[in-house]
Design goal:
By secondary structure, the protein is of the alpha+beta class. It has helices at 93-97, 166-171, 177-185, 189-198, 201-208, 213-222, 225-234, 237-245, 249-258, 261-271, 278-281, 295-302, 335-340, 364-373, 394-401, and strands at 8-9, 17-19, 25-36, 43-52, 56-61, 65-69, 72-75, 90-92, 101-104, 108-119, 125-134, 145-149, 288-289, 314-318, 329-334, 378-382, 388-393.
Length: 418
């Protein structure tokens, strides 16, 4: 490996792009694999876990890495795309060493928050140093951060220690929710729960929406009921309803009682519909505006960062009240139309009202056909009296059309999998 720095702290590399010799990106670094020798605690680097397109995680041997400069990881270009599976003798630095409690000289304890590797004269890579935060000292004095050599640290091997997740989450902070959910699926159940417990409420809500049903239920089950209710309030109401629908009746009612009344009411309404109907697919919180709202107001609403691209693709124009179920539904305005007309134009002047929107009992197949036929990424759901009940987005339809295990599967999905 040429021009390698003498010491590299791995927190600076996690999440960085991995390139082939031609300069094309082949994936992102998600973790580093090491093995500890039975008679000592210095670990040898075996390779890297690289996430390639399709969210598949593969193993890249360290011998196939030609450059490890910060922010620039270059490989020989030869990748084995077989899914990475951790062996019992291996340790993942980010997921298993970060936040681990260890022993230091003078009977001091500490927590690892970074790991450094160095290359020896034989061109093998080893863990050389640990960045450790000391525990509080006597008389309430706060601990300090130190970089210590590998032989000064004890408690790295043997029975799995209790870990927090503060520094692991800091390293994963820039991940999209779907990518973080993918990372959580790779962890042991114990470690996954430790990480989930320390995620912020909004972040955990976003991640739960990207996890399989069973993992959602497991994580919600380890949370304090009040915190679980807070997480459910932050989730899209249709996702919260799907999650609650898989819980025992008593647990579901306990959590609904702890939620804010307005949020709980929306979720209860969705729970009355079958999963594979328009009512079961819809969210009750699309962008709703009165007909006299201007395009400038509409553009401001769809710019809100918490909106998904599909929900931001159109505005739903209704008579008051503006909360679902609304007053009379007048139609929709697509985002492209908002960009074509003067900002002072009222949305009621350019509303599209010529489609037959699905009813809450319409089938999944009917909704999918409507989206495909009119090239839509979202559509309204209305009742028999033309009141808007909610909106369905294309991602909700795909979630129900794809196989139940599509998030875990490495296989390409064909038309027979629905």
């Amino acid at each position: 490996m040429s021009n390698a720095p003498s010491r590299i702290f791995l927190s600076r590399l996690i999440g960085q792009a991995v390139f082939d010799p031609a300069g094309d990106q082949v994936g992102k670094l998600r973790d580093v694999v090491v093995v500890f020798h039975p008679d000592r605690h210095q670990a040898r680097v075996l390779g890297m876990v690289v996430e390639i397109p399709g969210r598949r995680r593969i193993f890249l041997p360290i011998t196939r890495v030609t450059s490890l400069d910060t922010g620039q990881i270059i490989t020989t270009g030869v990748l084995n795309v077989r899914r990475f599976e951790e062996r019992s003798s291996e340790t993942l630095v980010l997921h298993e060493l970060f936040d681990r409690k260890v022993g230091l000289p003078d009977d001091i304890t500490g927590t690892i928050f970074d790991v450094a590797v160095e290359q020896d004269s034989r061109r093998d890579w080893h863990i050389s140093h640990y960045a450790v935060h000391e525990g509080a000292k006597r008389f309430g004095r706060r601990g300090q951060n130190h970089v210590v050599e590998w032989h000064e640290v004890t408690g790295l091997t043997g029975e799995e220690a209790q870990q927090g997740a503060t520094h692991l989450l800091a390293a994963l902070d820039q991940m999209r929710p779907a990518d973080l959910a993918n990372a959580l699926r790779e962890l042991t159940p114990k470690r996954r729960m430790e990480v989930a417990v320390e995620l912020g409420v909004e972040r955990l809500a976003d991640v739960l929406e990207e996890l399989p049903d069973q993992a959602q239920v497991e994580i919600l089950g380890v949370l304090d009921p009040e915190r679980a209710a807070d997480v459910l309030e932050e989730m899209d109401d249709d996702d919260a309803a799907d999650l609650l629908g898989g819980l025992p009746h008593d647990t579901r009612e306990q959590l609904l009682a702890l939620m804010e009344p307005d949020d709980a009411e929306d979720v209860r309404r969705l729970l009355t519909y079958d999963d594979n109907t328009a009512g079961g697919l819809m969210t009750t919180e699309p962008v709703i505006l009165p007909p006299n709202a201007t395009l400038a107001e509409a553009l401001a609403r769809i710019r809100e960062p918490e909106l998904s691209p599909a929900l931001a693709s159109m505005v739903y124009v209704c008579r008051p009240p503006a909360e679902t179920p609304t007053g009379r539904f007048l139609g929709v305005v697509h985002v492209q139309a908002l960009l074509r007309e003067p900002p002072s134009t009222q949305v009621g002047a350019i509303v599209v009202s010529d489609l037959e929107w699905p009813r809450p009992d319409s089938s999944l197949a009917h909704v999918a056909k409507l989206l495909a036929q009119y090239d839509l990424v979202a559509c309204a759901v209305v009742d028999e009296n033309a009141h808007l009940l909610g909106a369905i987005t294309i991602d909700d339809v795909l979630d129900h059309l794809l196989p139940d295990d599509w998030r875990e599967s490495d296989e390409e999905v064909d038309g027979d999998g629905a």
